[in-house]
Amino acid sequence: MDQLFSNKLIKEPRKADNIEFRALEITDFEKGFSELLQQLTEAKFEKSKFLERFIQMKNQPDTYYIIVAEDITTNRICATGCLFVEKKFIRSCGTCAHIEDIVVDSRYRGKNLGLKVIEHLKHIGNTLGCYKLILDCDEKNVKFYEKCGFERKGVQLSCYNTTIIPKAKL
């Protein structure tokens, strides 16, 4: 199975109540990965784009860790989250992990899947030796992330690119 990273990094147990937590696999597009992300934000993409991005991420080992929760009774992805590793010069050339794109399918909410996704991602970050794990969230989600062991620190600011310029061909 072509997966983004080794499932050995995922915290045990990886299966409970017909839900399996594992690394994103190249076949997950057919299992509703794009549709699930659309419950979080604009995330509609064709299979060809999924495959292209999957390969780009896989070709950057030790950087991208996307986990999914699959309902093994329906073969559908019902939750996901991403951890990516930033290589730093500070902290003795340490690494910092960013947690992004946490979403649980609306039909599965209230089953602690979001908490379990975060626990698995925190385990990966700790296993990789990241000196900190950070995330940004909407104000309405702060209490959830505090339950997951995060605390408020600093202020987040964003600057969105309003004019996307096509990539130059190299």
UniProtKB/TrEMBL annotation:
InterPro entries attached to this UniProt entry: Acyl_CoA_acyltransferase, GNAT_dom, GNPNAT1-like
Pathway recorded for this protein: Nucleotide-sugar biosynthesis; UDP-N-acetyl-alpha-D-glucosamine biosynthesis; N-acetyl-alpha-D-glucosamine 1-phosphate from alpha-D-glucosamine 6-phosphate (route I): step 1/2
GO molecular-function terms, A-Z: glucosamine 6-phosphate N-acetyltransferase activity
UniProt cross-references to SUPFAM superfamilies, sorted A to Z: Acyl-CoA N-acyltransferases (Nat) (SSF55729)
EC numbers for this chain: 2.3.1.4
Chief localization: membrane
Entry GO CC: endoplasmic reticulum membrane
Occurrences of domain N-acetyltransferase (ranges): 19-170
Entry's localization field: Endomembrane system; Endoplasmic reticulum membrane
Leading EC class: transferase
Biological processes per GO annotation: UDP-N-acetylglucosamine biosynthetic process
Membrane-topology descriptor: Peripheral membrane protein
A Pfam family annotated for this UniProt entry: Acetyltransf_1
Catalytic activity: D-glucosamine 6-phosphate + acetyl-CoA = N-acetyl-D-glucosamine 6-phosphate + CoA + H(+)
Subunit note: Homodimer.
Record family assignment: Belongs to the acetyltransferase family. GNA1 subfamily.
Name by which UniProt lists this protein: Glucosamine 6-phosphate N-acetyltransferase
Organism: Polysphondylium violaceum
